[in-house]
Design goal:
Layout lengths: L8 H8 L3 E4 L12 H9 L2 E4 L2 H10 L5 E4 L5 H13 L4 E4 L12 H10 L2 E4 L5 H9 L6 E6 L4 H9 L7 E6 L4 H12 L4 E5 L7 E5 L1 H10 L8 E5 L11 H11 L4 H12 L3 H12 L1
Parallel strand pairs: 1-4, 1-5, 2-3, 2-4, 6-7
Antiparallel strand pairs: 7-10, 8-9, 8-10
The structure holds S-adenosylmethionine.
The site of S-adenosylmethionine has 23 residues, from helix 6, strand 7 and strand 10.
Length: 292
């Protein structure tokens, strides 16, 4: 069956008139998460660019996909990008896959996609597995606004620096961590952020999928309870900082002090409140505290 039979008009056009680069997510553990569309696209493109062709051979074989593969990884991405763009411009279609999950998310592919966009080559991404989004959606932490940090720096000092940025961050932080560093990282989180609520998602979609949550100490207790608890793949999520709604930025406080020299505190508090979008009463109280 042709790809065009179930896809949108734009997509149909892309398949028939314009060669396209397809970004194709693959399972992060459970092969049943491979979508029918992913299988179809991978079967019908001219080339599959894979992060590791030997690793992906098993997946492709499992789904009886016989498309030719070539490698695209962090060490050859520039060279491959030039070659693949030539093929795409020549009318061939290409699918990009990584070892697991969504390409470009802590995986290669950015150089290729950016170049395709620059050259006006059609790029189409299929939705699918991604460890960060899978973990976040089941974490119980706020999802309305979050930041994905990829992997934290490896060196302790740089990692602590990156964690310090979370001290006042009012939304959830999500990052990936390797098993050999997971305990050190959670210990660093405890040192830098105190007993902030965290969730560590392990082995998502696999037999031993686990969510360990609570304070950093609770998660350390889980990780050290058994050697197996530090093995596998991990997503770490950190709850937002509890922002004190009464906290007044220093610039606002400074303006309040200046205005108080020229007008009554009540009026100064109203002006500063409207300028900084703060609560008038909180500013009034802060003004009284400052005078006292
Ligand atoms: N592109 C992938 C994605 O979309 O999730 C991520 C690739 S990144 C190189 C690999 C990291 O993702 C792992 O070290 C781990 O932190 C996380 N990861 C991948 N699969 C996972 C799983 N099944 N459970 C938990 N974390 C996973």
């Amino acid at each position: 069956m042709a790809l065009s039979s179930y896809l949108t008009k734009d997509y149909t056009t892309a398949m028939t008139d314009t060669a396209t680069l397809y970004i194709v997510p693959t399972p992060i553990g459970n092969l049943d998460d491979m979508s029918a569309r992913a299988i179809r696209v991978l079967s019908e493109v001219n080339w599959i660019a894979a992060e590791d062709t030997r690793h992906s051979a098993r997946l492709l074989q499992h789904f009886s996909i016989g498309t030719k593969t070539l490698s695209l990884h962090e060490h050859n991405e520039d060279k491959r990008t030039a070659m693949l763009c030539e093929r795409l411009k020549g009318g061939e279609s290409v699918a990009l896959i990584s070892d697991a999950g969504t390409p470009l998310i802590s995986d290669p592919g950015f150089v290729l996609v950016r170049k395709c966009r620059e050259l006006g080559i059609s790029v189409s991404a299929l939705p699918g597995p991604c460890a960060a989004i899978t973990a976040l959606s089941a974490s119980g932490l706020p999802t309305d606004k979050f930041i994905f940090e990829g992997f934290l720096p490896v060196k302790t000092q740089a990692r602590e620096g990156a964690l310090s940025a979370l001290l006042d961050r009012p939304f959830t932080t999500v990052f990936y961590e390797a098993p050999r560093r997971i305990l050190d990282t959670v210990t660093d989180i405890q040192r830098v952020l105190g007993e902030r609520n965290i969730v560590v998602a392990k082995e998502l979609t696999k037999t031993f999928e686990t969510y360990a949550s609570g304070s950093a100490q609770d998660v350390i207790d889980y990780l050290t309870a058994e050697p197996a608890h530090q093995k596998g793949e991990f997503v770490v999520m950190i709850a937002p900082a509890q922002i004190n709604e009464q906290a007044i930025p220093s610039e606002a406080m400074s303006l309040l002090n200046t205005l108080c020299e020229h007008m009554p505190l009540k009026k100064a508090a109203a002006v500063v409140a409207s300028h900084y979008d703060l609560k008038k009463n909180a500013l009034y109280q802060a003004g009284l505290d400052a005078k006292a």
